[in-house]
Amino acid sequence: MPLIVFASPKGGVGKTTMAVNIADAMRRNGRRVLVIDFDPQNTLRLHFGVPLSDTAGFIAELPKRPDWRNVVRQTPSGVMVLPHGAIDIRGALGLSSALERDPELLAAPLRSIMADPGLLVIADTPPGPSHALNLLAPMASMVVAVLLADATSAALVPDIDNGRFLGSGTMAALFAGRLRVVLNQVDPNSRLSRAAAETVARHLGPRLLGAVCRDEVVAEALAAQRLVQDIAPNSRAAEDLREVARGVEAALPAVPDTLQAGWGAR
Ligand SMILES: Nc1ncnc2c1ncn2[C@@H]1O[C@H](COP(=O)(O)OP(=O)(O)OP(=O)(O)O)[C@@H](O)[C@H]1O
Ligand SMILES: [Mg+2]
């Protein structure tokens, strides 16, 4: 039932990396986890070893209101993955207007997935504002904004702080309480990176769930189509990711044992 959304005002900061590796860590902690890729780049699946040639996903069937269960992949990690699916520019534009007219196209199947109280759903979104983020934020238990430890991110903190990142006026006020932040690619050897991380940490207090260091194993894991805990469990990044997962876990309601089976348990 709980939905955690990974988002960021800025692209290329590590949203997808964070979403998949936190999903993996939470699965290892005993959760049943489904990750959904809402980004038309359709790359999330690669982290779980789904072949590049396999481009199927939920998006192509969306206008027909399909049962998404048919497109869910069981992966060796134990995490279930619902890929976005490949879509060309004409399809993407058509879909964007369809969603503007009828957000239920996306909201209805999502609600049906979230009706399973024992399932943790993690959503990855495209950078910046998107239909997906707009729709997911009100349904989410937590929106995790991923930021880099640099000057641009420090400048974006006020938007995170008051919820403006997810809306304006009352909407912003409503969502501000659900926003958490993770800093990514922190370089302990860089004065600027350290200073930016300290500034953000001081400002956000407990809303900062943690920080992940810049570590080549993270990029190597993606190149190998594996997860960080698989290829380098003793690395600094793996330790940081486990720590962030603990922070996320601590902020979520506990799952009773009786709810450990259900949707997607096949
Ligand atoms: N902590 C890290 N250390 C080293 N490299 C990292 C780290 N986090 C992410 N990367 C690398 O940075 C690149 C971008 O990461 P990712 O694709 O997760 O970002 P994103 O925010 O999802 O991007 P987009 O906005 O395009 O969706 C990838 O090559 C990834 O391997
Ligand atoms: Mg991404």
UniProtKB/TrEMBL annotation:
Record-linked CDD domains: ParAB_family (cd02042)
Database matches in SUPFAM superfamilies: P-loop containing nucleoside triphosphate hydrolases
Gene3D superfamilies: P-loop containing nucleotide triphosphate hydrolases
Top-level taxon of the source organism: Bacteria
Protein name: Cellulose synthase operon protein YhjQ
Organism annotation: Rhodovarius crocodyli
Gene designation per UniProt: yhjQ
